[in-house]
TrEMBL record:
Organism of derivation: Streptomyces alkaliterrae
Ranges annotated as biased composition (Basic and acidic residues): 8-20
Region annotated Disordered, chain positions: 1-22
Source organism, top-level taxon: Bacteria
Protein's recorded name: MarR family transcriptional regulator
Amino acid sequence: MALSKGPLTDEQKDRYRSSAEETGLLVEDMRRRFVPLARAALDELVDEADQGTQAAA
């Protein structure tokens, strides 16, 4: 809310940029960890589905 009340001071801009950069780094770190875990989970589901299909045949 404070950021929407007129022009920003240089200090506010620096704090905003710093916070945005930190958040960006955290998001990228979480993405790097999430993608391999999600891929492994999907591979496991596909393998189970394939086994179920083969057993039914």
